[in-house]
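Record format v2
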Amino acid sequence: MPKRPAPLFAFAITVALLGLTWVSVKRPAAQSTALDADRPRYYLDNTEWVRYDANGNPEQRVRTQRIVMLADDSARLTELTVDQLGGEQGPWVLRAPTGYSPPDSRRLLLENTVTIEGHWPGDPPLKLETQQMWVDPEVHQIYTETPVSIAGVARSANANGMRADWDADRVQLQGNVKVRYDPSE
Amino acid sequence: QQAAETPVSAAAAPGYQRPTGPIDIEAQSADILRDGRAIYRGDVKVSARDFNLSGDELELRQLDNRQFVIVVTGAPARFAHNGGVGKEAPPVDANAQRIEYDSRNGVLQLTGEVRLLRGRDRLTTDILRYDLNERRIQASGGTSGQVRITLDPATLEQDTKDKQP
């Protein structure tokens, strides 16, 4: 994957028309101190943000109630859904109340009870839950080092961490893995 | 020393059920792959309602109707079958280089340096087939042609009593 120039946020926004409000944040009256990294610069509401790959195909879609862009070029998102990972057929759908994208990074961290729908490779749907999950377009993976619980048909699992490719060809459970197979379920 | 193909059978314990309950697997890591396989590594333990397996690595292949085949390898891989519902049959412990279990029929195939203990009877061989439902052991010598069985006198006595009309 050719390293894209690292513009702050290499993304093309397909902006949902509903309720778009572009509010330029007025500088707080008492604005005399040095640039505060957490100071919002602007925010967008009800946004659908689609990232395209080098061939111009959609490879990640993020729908969020609000994105706040901060002075240090990071972003905070609320009520977000991430899907279409690797393309419109991507098997993973991730939801979280909050998300964060660090400065100078294309990664996105979903936080605070992340729920994920997806597939065991080649299997019926399954539900995952964890406290954090990274979505990484550089390596086309989702991964976490926080405990994850997984429930599927005739199979459930727990582990200390997880890593999976966007196409769900391979799901790696890491650390203290416990899986239950129940043919009778 | 007995013939290579020696069915050493023990009458199925009364009330014995097919092992269809859930199976729990623990390990340090697991890779679940699109082709239906799952590979577990590191201190692998399998526990089912009345038997356990353990080893270094386990490969589980999902089959239709949610059944599966498990292959455990280790140095050695181990298998333990408890005494059945009412503990009326002697427990069986075995180890081997490779143990395969098929959930569809409850049969285990042990290969490579197989050692089995049933109560105080001892058996060593290269290939052994163990039917969980019938608690039936079939051993064959494989490449070494050696099946070595040491039966405890008490077992011999019990077997003769069982055979008396």
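Residues 1-19 of chain B have pLDDT under 50 and may be disordered.
The first strand of chain B starts at residue 6 and ends at 8.
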